[in-house]
Amino acid sequence: MRFLSLLLALAPAAGVFGLWPQPRSLETGSTALKLASDFDIHVSVQHPPSDLSDAVSRTKSFLQNDKLGRLVVGRGSSDSSALKTAKSLKTLQLSLSKGATVRSITEESRLALGTRSEEYILDIPADGSTATLTANSTLGLLRGLTTFSQLFYEWSGQIYTVEAPISITDAPAYPWRGLMLDTSRNFFPVADIMRTLDAMSLVKMSQFHWHVTDSQSFPLVIPGFTELANAGAYDPSMVYSPSDVQDIVDYAGARGIDVMVEIDTPGHTAIIGAAHPEYVACAEASPWTTFANEPPAGQLRLASATVANFTAKMFTAVAKMFPSTVLSTGGDELNTECYAQDSETQADLTSTGRTLEQALSVFTQTTHGALKAAGKTPAVWEEMVLDHNVTLSNETVVLVWISSMNAAAVAEKNFRLVHAPSDYFYLDCGAGEWIGDDVANSWCDPFKTWQKAYTFDPQANISASQAHLVLGGEQALWTEQSGPENLDPIVWPRAAASAEVFWTGPGGNGSEALPRLHDVAFRMRQRGVKAIQLQPMWCALRPGQCNLDS
Amino acid sequence: MRFLSLLLALAPAAGVFGLWPQPRSLETGSTALKLASDFDIHVSVQHPPSDLSDAVSRTKSFLQNDKLGRLVVGRGSSDSSALKTAKSLKTLQLSLSKGATVRSITEESRLALGTRSEEYILDIPADGSTATLTANSTLGLLRGLTTFSQLFYEWSGQIYTVEAPISITDAPAYPWRGLMLDTSRNFFPVADIMRTLDAMSLVKMSQFHWHVTDSQSFPLVIPGFTELANAGAYDPSMVYSPSDVQDIVDYAGARGIDVMVEIDTPGHTAIIGAAHPEYVACAEASPWTTFANEPPAGQLRLASATVANFTAKMFTAVAKMFPSTVLSTGGDELNTECYAQDSETQADLTSTGRTLEQALSVFTQTTHGALKAAGKTPAVWEEMVLDHNVTLSNETVVLVWISSMNAAAVAEKNFRLVHAPSDYFYLDCGAGEWIGDDVANSWCDPFKTWQKAYTFDPQANISASQAHLVLGGEQALWTEQSGPENLDPIVWPRAAASAEVFWTGPGGNGSEALPRLHDVAFRMRQRGVKAIQLQPMWCALRPGQCNLDS
Predict the structure, then answer these.
(1) Whether A527 contacts chain B with CB within 8 A
(2) Residues of chain B neighbouring A434 (CB-CB closer than 8 A)
(3) Residue of B489, B536, B537 lying closest to A486 (CB–CB)
(4) I want to staple B291 with a disulfide (CB 3.0 to 4.6 A). Which of A3, A33, A345, B297 is the partner?
(5) Whose CA is closest to A308, among A382, A262, A361, A231?
């Protein structure tokens, strides 16, 4: 059934300009092939799920509307004569491998990590005979459709490729190919998130990590806990209602993306004090530099049984909103001075006879216990494993952010991990400091270029016996200096770099990659995503001619 | 008549949050004052120019449509009770000082540098009696209207200030408050340029420096020289027609902005070779690193009389398209190796008995002679004064870009100068290198923050006797890694930093400035300019609370 299982050992293939990420195995010719005016996509699946039918419709729409000219001088003008004699492709036939269980794309996308089936085989003959796309799952079909839509260009009303026949056998190297967005420092309307999911899907990303709340604002409306957004959102209009969340997870699921929500606790929670002042220690304490890594200070009183129970119940309610099997409780940047100076926390520690570390472990077991009861796997930031003495289930997913050097230590402790290292993958770095009167460079300068992300090695310093613990990785946008205004340009096409590292595998050559990254950036722009220009258009149309030795 | 002439000696005043740039003299109260539902602006000018009437209409539209809530917690909610008893302002009365010549804003904006009158006096009583705006010119009235529109906020349908009475006497420190945009590396549609002019006008900028062509593409359609864009534009749709130019200079003029176009010569001209291969030395020569600072190589054959005459005639034609008195011929980054290896240039030098430097001087005198005949003042980049032995008219405006340290040397040579230093004002720096296979940082990293630009001192190292030579300055967007997708976020609100330095004068305090910069950025967003977030909104609503010691 898993007929593609050998693929993971294949090296990346030399590629078609338009494909990002690069398929694991790819053969192309040099024959022009155009889409017939009555081109159609046939689905040979009994009772196809509606999101598969929708994906087929979207693919046909992209083929018609992308209208992307090839990135060569003159765009498609030099293809005119080849197009006159080109065969027409009338049909792409989709089918599932024999015996495959038919689930919706959405269901497949939300399966537990490591059990999702994304592999596919795509064959496009040069003679106009039927092209075929086969997979083990509807999710694999979606990945194949995404590839198919990237193969075609437009010139003078014709939609075509000049590289037929095309034969692709493909599967991802890692299941977690993610993007993190912080919607607390600054708010993003639902439409911005959906457009981001569109772009993620185009580069076959699988995981949206939604850092939905933080100390600055609480935009998530949680049934039974609506006071948190009522008091903590920036504005009554700047919230995600339960139906907004439903729309977002459905939109993501239909595009092959699972949504892991994160309610960062017990730090990064100052704004909970707007609704529940009694739950928060050192709320807006001054100077904030003593009590937090950034303003405002404020952390949940983790040693309080009342606060732990409140937090666990909140997580139970949040778990019901998000169908993913994974949910993050955060756990980064806990400030001990905040608790040292908080008389309520000190009283709680005294009365229970616990140290702060012991109380943190109890707090975490309480919240994680609630998640487990709700059928969820918890995720945490690396400090919970490396800096604290917290008892965690071995199931826990650990997000490595402080440094890429820390991944090995997490693997040593036998936890599954996701790479999100600030030294490679932080999209916000390099714009200087945002603290009002600090004119120094920011802690994570310089700017992390796409080239830097592209050189990342997921298995660096990790022993072969622990290799299986690496789930993948994600680029992250923290939004102290970002908002809807610069979302697209600060993320795209940069975040596509890690999408290829974790789909195709590491070791790609930046010079080879650049023309393909131009191509996917141009295609994103055609689809309404404001991906930036990587070079002057002169260079984009002349691959290699803006290299140093050219 | 110049009743505001003493103002230039005044120190910046403590300010209303909403004003950027800070007026030279400002007094405010703490009384709420709202606009009456029938508020109107009366123009006491006989036969007001149509662009003044348009500016009045735009101002009324901004007042109604900005709908900006005050940047405080709760936005305007705490103003509700004050608004219940607030007086209503029914009229703003505009008038010119006695004996002032009535010209259109557009005409005033295009007067020679140093002769434009931008000063104004604005008085808004707290009791609802008529507010008055007086100036020496329609351009001064425009600046005052711009200030007026920034004073008002919206809450619950009411448009109001809480700082009446307001009394402002204002005038700029420097005439040149500019922004440079490169439309050659990547193309920008006319609408993007117009939106940029809107934002410039909001912060009282006076000069758009349009670097319209370069080696990568030639988007300007010049009557009589249409072959240049025909062969050199990226696409037939990616051009500025003469009517586009007319629209842009008119749009700018009506907003108090003069447009200085730049056709960079004799370097940065490779693309002219697409139409006239015989005019260009070392066109696309390889390796480009030998022949140019960036790909593609190619420079006008400056020693050829034919090429010099062609270029001069082209400038004559360009001069007719742009009503400004200033026009830039560029002159930066001339590569000598390109000419050393060009047999045609060597033959021309031999036959005329000139050195390359002598030929450059003749070439420049030819092009500048054409400009002078067309009534224009030439502008050049600093190398033409500091690195070459070129005879230039003392009228010439010199743009300093390589380093802020070079301004003093230009002033020593008694040339008027514009500060555009890469170490303070280059908006493109800090995103890494764009050369395809160069993973090093770019030459002008790191990112130039608004705080950095804000610390610029226009008179640093310049002697008092040469102080008058400083015309002002400009921030610059070179577009190797930019396009329409990131134009607004990469420029705004950063470029407002220099607008205040050159209007109000240097020495502003960044902590004091930040809340006002937030305010103008929020207002830009309300007007459709995608200025970025400078901080989490939590900070924007709590001035000072995200400072280090808060």
Answers:
(1) no
(2) 534-536, 539, 546
(3) B489
(4) B297
(5) A361
| Chain B residues close to A73, C-beta within 8 Å | none
CATH code, domain with A467 = 3.20.20.80
Same domain, residue pair B408 and B298: yes
**What residues of B are annotated to the active site?**
333
- Looking at the fold, whether B197 and B156 belong to one and the same domain comes out as no
Is B189 near chain A, with CB under 8 Å? no
Query: Nearest-CA distance from A298 to chain B in Å?
Result: 14
Same domain, B193 and B207: yes
Between residues 126 and 155 of chain A, which touch chain B (CB distance below 8 Å)? Answer: none
pLDDT tens digits, residue range B308-352? Answer: 999 999 999 999 999 999 999 999 999 999 999 999 999 999 999
Assess whether B29 and B107 both reside in one domain: yes
List the CATH number of the domain containing B125.
Answer: 3.30.379.10
Residue A523 lies in a domain: no
Nearest residue, CB atoms, A549 vs list B287, B430, B547? B287
For residue B302, count CB atoms less than 10 angstroms from its CB and return exposed for 0-12, middle for 13-18, buried for 19 or more: buried
Q: Is the pLDDT of residue A53 over 90?
A: yes
User: Does residue A149 sit in the same domain as residue A211?
Assistant: no
Q: Are residues A166 and A181 in the same domain?
A: no
Domain boundary among A170, A186, A206: A170
CA distance A215 to chain B (A): 9
What predicted TM-score, i.e. pTM, was given to this entire model? 0.96
Domain presence at residue A520: no
Q: How far is CA A509 from CA A15, A17, B9, B439, in A?
A: 12, 14, 59, 12
| B374 backbone dihedrals φ, ψ, rounded to 5° | -90, 5
Helices (H) and strands (E) in chain A, counts: 21, 16
Task: Please state, as a whole number, how many other Cβ atoms lie within 10 Å of the Cβ of residue B31.
Answer: 18
Q: Which residues of A touch B435 (CB under 8 A)?
A: 546-548
Domain of residue A404 covers: 176-508
Interchain CB distance below 8 Å, B537 and A486: no
Query: Which residues of B fall within a CB distance of 8 Å from A449?
Result: 431-433, 439
Question: What mean pLDDT do residues B3-8 have?
Answer: 39
Run of H or E including A107: helix A105-109
Check CB contact of B539 with chain A, cutoff 8 Å.
yes
Read out DSSP for B116-139? ----EEEEE-SSSPPEEEEESSHH
pLDDT tens, B225-273? 999 999 999 999 999 999 999 999 999 999 999 999 999 999 999 999 9
Report ipTM for this prediction.
0.96
Considering only CB atoms, which chain B residues are within 8 Å of A533? Answer: 186, 479-483, 485-486
Section B411-416 average pLDDT: 98
Rounded to a whole number of angstroms, the distance from the CA of B83 to the nearest CA of chain A is 21
- Are A220 and A126 members of one domain? no
Give the domain-ending residue among B143, B170, B197. Answer: B170
Q: Does B547 touch chain A (CB under 8 A)?
A: yes
Contact state of B547 with A435 under an 8 Å Cβ cutoff: yes
Can you say whether the dihedral through the CA atoms of A214, A216, A220, A221 is positive or negative? positive
The reply to whether B27 falls in a domain is yes
Q: How far apart are CA B311 and CA B309, in angstroms?
A: 5
Query: Would B548 be classed as within a structural domain?
Result: no
A237 in contact with B, Cβ within 8 Å: no
Beta strands in A390-484 (DSSP E): 397-400, 416-419, 470-477
